[in-house]
Amino acid sequence: MVPGYREVRQLGAGRTGRVFLATYQQTGAYVAIKYLNATLRRDTEFMDRYRSDTHELVEIDDPNVVKLYEYVETQARAAIVMELVDGVTLRTLLTEHHRTSPEAALAVLKSTLLALAAAHERGVPHRDVKPENILVQADGTTKLADFGVVVHAEEPGVPAGSPEYMAPELWTQGRAGPPADVYAAACVLFEAARGRPPYRAYKEGGNGELDVPALRDEHLVEPVPVEVAPDTLRDLLRRGLAKDPAVRYASARQFAAELEEDAVAAYGPNWENRGRRHLAELATLLALRFPLARTDHAATAASRIRDRMPRVPRLPPHLWVAGATVVAVAISLMMSGGRLPPGPGAILMPPPETQSVQEPTPADA
Question: How far apart are CA 52 and CA 165, in angstroms?
Fold first, then answer.
């Protein structure tokens, strides 16, 4: 446990570690704490780089970036304390809804590119842009998380990253940097609009396991599949997914600027608002999966709903008993087809009212 914080519950776990919902004890504010797994902690190259990156990451204050509050490392663990985003990952949203509208896909890409620009201008590449690291909030805005937290694929000789989003230079030279982030962001645009990554290859057997060597070849030599993308996205995808880094957009900020021009030309000046509204609709359908859905905030909301419900009038106990008796008899008559059961009947009488009987308190009502 990180000193100064109280853990509430685990939110999730993945290849890089486990994430917990926690509160900052001095203020009660919610945060998310990610504990890096043992594999990453044993990777000396990763740990040296990440320690260096955190000095820059804590300085980034951008609405498109999940804020990093502090990094805590001991001999036993390494923890990242960050802003809690009350929403779902883009991966969850795509799994449930398959795809988004083109305007929504562009809204996701614009936010992601602005987040990348904020980090790149401080010399920090993301290294693993993918739907799992993009968080969609209830208002349709998105934030990019997990800068620099990346693991190697399970197959030997494969560089660190997620194969479906890895640029050609990563496969051939292991060169991570802003151009590779731009490529991965373009992959996310394609997937959000089409419901699948631009390149995919699976092993025979139908178990959904990636064929990593075949996927590598597709990233290196296959043409960009723009013909299956919406018309308005094709130029952005063609350049964003260019095999040669020199042909891609010179920076994430330039990519975002040209995206804005193309989106306005195709959809009008309100394209982003419509895109975010669509994302908000999709995310709200998954509100029970939000981190705060099972906390005191949810209980307070439920309490407010109960407060708006009509109050049942307070009655003396003997009237409650009498009412219950009438209901029981009515049910018995209906179940017997309107005939009373044979044999002696029992008549329940309310108990005599005594001085010791009190009206129920609000907690009893």
Answer: 25
